[in-house]
Amino acid sequence: DVLMTQTPVSLPVSLGGQVSISCRSSQSLVHSDGNTYLHWYLQKPGQSPQLLIYRVSNRFSGVPDRFSGSGSGTDFTLKISRVEPEDLGVYYCLQSTHFPWTFGGGTKLELK
Amino acid sequence: EVQLVESGGGLVQPGRSLKLSCVASGFTFSNYGMNWIRQAPGKGLEWVAYISSGSSYIYYAETVKGRFTISRDNAKNTLYLQMTSLRSEDTALYYCARRGGQLDYWGQGVMVTVSS
């Protein structure tokens, strides 16, 4: 199985600040069709996860441009600029290139 | 508006069975692959199973293979997860989610507790 390693586990932030979350995979996430199926989710307290970024760098409908994704191969990053209160929660990366699909362990974004 | 509503959860003894349902609305259900994902209390997310739009392709996590069966009824806009030989480690909030890989919309989840 593809191991997804997210760092850090906990990320204290000040409102208005900028943060980065790393997600590394144990093997390349480039699919045979040429696409890279790496996605980012936010799970707010008491809520279901919501899709933020799909296929590395594409913002999902309604996601503010404060969120951006980048990376390639095995190394990916989610950046959040101008952090707002509604951004707090746990962030997960997901790879869906190789079955079984696997999630990272999560990064908890919390106020400093 | 896309809506996914799970049901069928509850308290069940180890070794018993349970069947979850997920009713979809707000989109053409038969056009999308669907998934089950679970989250044990206080833990992270675990993908459980995927079924393609026409049920031709089905995949499972190793932890549930041979015990869980994903299926769908496109005429009823409903996704199912038949769970047998349940174990304490299957205790989790079970979500259904739309779309192969991208998991773009999620339901609110249904709790399954396996305990004697």
Word description of this protein:
The complex is a heterodimer of chains A (112) and B (116). In chain A, 0% of the residues lie in helices and 48% in strands. Chain A has strands at residues 4-7, 10-13, 19-25, 38-43, 50-54, 58-59, 67-72, 75-80, 89-95, 102-103, 107-111. Chain A is globular, with a radius of gyration of 13 Å. With 116 residues, chain B is mostly beta strands. Helix content of chain B is 0%, strand content 48%. Chain B has a six-stranded mixed β-sheet, with no helix packed on it. Chain B has a four-stranded antiparallel β-sheet with strand order 1-3-8-7, with no helix packed on it. Chain B is globular and about 40 Å long. The interface between A and B is medium-sized, with 24 and 20 residues.
Q: Main attributes?
A:
heterodimer; A: 112 residues; mainly beta; 7-stranded mixed beta sheet; 4-stranded antiparallel beta sheet; globular; B: 116 residues; 6-stranded mixed beta sheet; 10 strands; 48% strand
SSE map:
The complex is a heterodimer of chains A (112) and B (116).
Chain A: E1 4-7, E2 10-13, E3 19-25, E4 38-43, E5 50-54, E6 58-59, E7 67-72, E8 75-80, E9 89-95, E10 102-103, E11 107-111
Chain B: E1 3-7, E2 10-12, E3 18-25, E4 34-39, E5 45-51, E6 58-60, E7 68-73, E8 78-83, E9 92-98, E10 110-114
Parallel strand pairs in B: 2-10
Antiparallel strand pairs in B: 1-3, 3-8, 4-5, 4-9, 5-6, 7-8, 9-10
